[in-house]
Write a structure and sequence with these properties.
Helix content is 77%, strand content 0%. 14% of the residues are buried.
């Protein structure tokens, strides 16, 4: 179950980081984050990146097998879903705000 989650997080993180890099260099004359909508997009995407990095850490943790039980996986899966939803909300906010 770990491999598809790691792969999908890597792909989504790559797209988000590319989006943020293009967004940050879009306007060379001034600040990129100026309005409340810009702040909402930036905070949402940064929170999504943070959660996704935490999920990757939890998935790639090579601790003893008894520590990797169903409860830990359930929490990791909830964080995974939260990170992906936040990422899509952030990109959607960037498109429509």
């Amino acid at each position: 179950m770990r491999q598809p989650m790691v792969t999908s997080l890597g792909i989504i993180l790559g797209f988000i980081l590319n989006f943020l890099a293009n967004w940050a260099t879009e306007d060379e004359a001034g600040e990129t984050v100026m309005t409340a909508a810009d702040h909402a997009v930036a905070l949402t995407l940064l929170a999504a990146i943070g959660i996704m990095c935490l999920v990757l850490f939890r998935l790639l943790d090579m601790g003893p097998p008894e520590e990797r039980d169903n409860a830990r996986y359930a929490v990791t899966f909830k964080l995974y879903c939260t990170g992906i939803v936040l990422a899509f909300v952030g990109v959607g906010a960037a498109l429509f705000l």
